[in-house]
Amino acid sequence: MLGILVLLLLPYLACSCPVHCVCYLGVAVQCVGPSITDVPGQMPSNMTLLQLNVTNINVLNQWSLQNMSPLLRFSLIQGPLHTIHPLAFYATPQLRSIKLSLNKLVTLPGKVFSPLADLEQLQLDANQLESIPSEMLRGLTKLQHLELNSNQISRLDPGVFDGLSSLTFLNLGGNLIRALAPGTFRSLTALRRLMLYTNRLEVLEGNLFGHLPELVDLKIHNNHITRLAPKVFWSLGKLSILTLSGNQLQEVPEKSFYHMPKLVKITLWTNPLRSLPALLMGHTPFMQEFYLFSTALTNVPGNLFANMTGLLRLNLHLNSQLQELPAELFHNLPKLKKLSIKCNDLRTLHPDLFSNLTSLSVLDLNDNKLRSLPSTIFQNLKVVSAIDLKNNELQTLPGEIFHSNGVLKKLSLIHNQWVCDCQIEGLAYWLGANKQVLDDHAVLCQSPSYKMLRPLWSLGEKDFYECIPLAVGYFPRQRGSQTKISTPRQSPAVTTYQPSTSQSTTFPLASSTPASIALPPRITTTAPTTTATSTSTTASTTATSITPEASSAPPSIPSISMEQHSRPFYDRLVFEQGPEFVHHHPHQGWVSVWTLPLDADHLGLLMTSHILLMVTGALLIFASMCGMYRLEKVMRELRVENKDDRHAL
């Protein structure tokens, strides 16, 4: 309690304190207000810190800081200060920190800071300085922190920083500097952070950074740089952060980022890069962040990230001309946590593209032109928690594509062209069982028309009544010759086969215990006139009509005995394409299945025929009504005539 009481009374414990000021134990004084037009007098004798904020001081004259011999830190910020007398700091040579930010300074006397041999921090940012006199910083051998950013400086004298051997931080950002002489920073051997962002630099000369062995942070973004000298960064062996974004680079010299093993972050975004050399990055095992987006790249080298084994975050997005990625591009990134390849022009992805990203947690694939994905593309992403696939051109996805992603918590699939036919049945069932992972439930069917705007996750077995699951996969109905398959009763497999077109498909009827049959990847057909095949009653007789093609068949196909024929098969078929008309009938132990596809041409013909039939029917009904009307009229006239005749008699 006593400590809190002392803190509350601190502003009032000083012996004397000027008006509009607050004094803390006489050591620190803060004065605020537009009524202050000069540095207040009668300050505490032991004051070491003086802050003047939002005042009306225009001029700092040679007497402003007199009688302040203990003063170590002086701050005069956010005011109309436009003039400093050349002798203003001669009365306080002991100063270690000066802050003159957010004022109206345009020029400074050449030797205004010369007496401050112990000065460690100098902030002149957010003024209107147009130049820095070459002698202004002479003698400041202990200066460590210098801020000249947000001024109007257009050039720097070659020796302006000579003698600043203790400087560790230099901020020149937000100026109008167009060029830097190679020897500009030659004396800054202790410099660790150099800010050159938001200037008008056009070229980085070869030896510009040659004398900065301790530099760890270099920010050169938002300039007009069109060319990098070869090996310009090679001397920066300790550099960990490099920002080159927002420039005009169309190319980067080969091996530009070699001999920089300490790199942790690099940005190249918003450059009109057209290509990158195969040899760009040296061994950078500590790299954690790489930003390469908003470029004109049409491709990237397959080994671009090969030396970045420690990479955690990679942004390779907003490249509107990038249509494909090499299969091995991400193979050496086992620690990658977040990958963004959104907003590109990607059409397809290689099945092994993400196979080595075993630590990946967030994957952004949205806003591309993906139409389909391989079934195994996410197979090794065991810890991925978020996948974004919205705003693509996806029509379907394999039903098992997310089966390996056991910790998936967020999945975005909206704004795609989902075709809710037989091929999407597996995905629909998975979404129905895992609806909680969808970040937006508006995953809607776009076709066929009778399922349009249906939520994909809401589709059930009744919505795929035209699909008949087979033990060996999903077979689309096609029109053509006859196909015969004998298969046991099993659950539908995932693999999709491409059978020859068939008009009639025949299956044997059987009953008994299940048995497995090895089937070739393709199915040959017989003449369309054959609709049924009877099996022999002899046990030694074999029956199979599945024969491999020469290009894809295995060396031999096992025959199917009568015992195998007597075993049950899955008596439902799943066709990939629908809706279609199906007719089947049993015949001597076989089931003949006749199919009729509804592709665009057939659908148009059927619709035209349907319309013609409806119009013809309507015309016939109208004609019959007219006939009935005329007949009724004639009958009525006849009845009237008969009545008149009877009256006449």
In summary, what is this structure?
The protein is of the alpha/beta class and 649 residues long.
Task: Sum up the structure in keywords.
Leucine-rich repeat, LRR (right-handed beta-alpha superhelix); 11% helix
Write the layout of secondary structure elements.
Blueprint: H1 2-9, E1 21-24, E2 28-32, E3 49-53, E4 59-60, E5 73-77, E6 83-84, E7 97-99, E8 121-123, E9 145-147, E10 169-171, E11 193-195, E12 203-204, E13 217-219, E14 227-228, E15 241-243, E16 265-267, E17 289-291, E18 313-315, E19 338-340, E20 362-364, E21 386-388, E22 410-412, E23 418-419, H2 425-433, E24 445-447, E25 481-484, E26 502-508, H3 562-565, E27 581-587, E28 590-596, H4 600-648
Parallel strand pairs: 2-3, 3-5, 4-6, 5-7, 7-8, 8-9, 9-10, 10-11, 11-13, 12-14, 13-15, 15-16, 16-17, 17-18, 18-19, 19-20, 20-21, 21-22, 23-24, 25-26
Antiparallel strand pairs: 1-2, 26-28, 27-28
Can you give a write-up of this model?
With 649 residues, the chain is an alpha/beta fold. Among the domains are: 11-139, Ribonuclease Inhibitor (Leucine-rich repeat, LRR (right-handed beta-alpha superhelix), Alpha-Beta Horseshoe), CATH 3.80.10.10; 348-356 and 367-465, Ribonuclease Inhibitor (Leucine-rich repeat, LRR (right-handed beta-alpha superhelix), Alpha-Beta Horseshoe); 467-549 and 559-607, no CATH class. Helix content is 11%, strand content 15%. It has four helices and 28 strands. The protein has helices at 2-9, 425-433, 562-565, 600-648, and strands at 21-24, 28-32, 49-53, 59-60, 73-77, 83-84, 97-99, 121-123, 145-147, 169-171, 193-195, 203-204, 217-219, 227-228, 241-243, 265-267, 289-291, 313-315, 338-340, 362-364, 386-388, 410-412, 418-419, 445-447, 481-484, 502-508, 581-587, 590-596. The strands form five sheets. It has an 18-stranded mixed β-sheet, with no helix packed on it. Strands 25-26-28-27 form a four-stranded mixed β-sheet, with no helix packed on it. The protein is elongated. Residues 1-14 and 470-571 have low confidence and may be disordered.
